[in-house]
Specification:
With 159 residues, this protein is α+β, with helices and mostly antiparallel strands. The model has no long low-confidence stretch (mean pLDDT 87).
Length: 159
């Protein structure tokens, strides 16, 4: 996937700065469809990796990996987490991370797709307002708002 470990999205940002229209064509992974919403999994100026986890374990509980992932700068991607969205958000809020950028992407590559971006603290209310349900991916991390964290001119200077 060209959006993993930075280069793909850097090229898109640079092309857009030059006025060149870009598009993204994903592979078969749902993770790859994040590019439709301008969300790279990683960006070398923002994070070092990503965690992919389930929102609901077989016993119905939330994975303990969520609290481990919050200790890193990694992007967190949660499959099957919509029923636990309020709990997921409260874990972040209770650990002092309510302002981390987050998104919900439902039906990513289909005509009926929906996406909301906000902070993790705001996400449950937005999900209700926009009637977002499963199947959807929950993405948490600075890459959700990559342009707010990356100086585009610095990328061009490396060219």
């Amino acid at each position: 996937d060209p959006f993993i470990f930075g280069r793909g999205y850097e090229e898109i940002l640079y092309a857009r700065k030059l006025g060149i229209k870009t598009s993204y064509i994903p592979g078969i992974s749902a993770l790859q469809t994040l590019g439709y919403e301008d969300v790279p999994l990683t960006h070398r100026n923002i994070n070092d990796g990503f965690w992919v986890m389930t929102g609901t374990k077989a016993d119905g509980s939330l994975t303990a990996d969520l609290e481990l992932a919050m200790q890193s700068n990694a992007t967190v991607v949660i499959y099957m987490g919509m029923k636990k969205l309020s709990l997921i958000a409260s874990v972040y809020i209770n650990n002092g991370f309510s302002s981390i950028p987050a998104a919900i992407i439902q039906h990513a590559s289909l005509p009926l797709k929906k996406c909301v971006k906000a902070t993790i603290g705001e996400l449950p209310n937005l999900a209700a307002t926009h009637d977002l349900k499963h199947p959807a991916l929950i993405v948490i991390g600075k890459v959700v708002d990559v342009e707010a964290y990356v100086e585009i001119s610095a990328l061009a200077e490396r060219r």
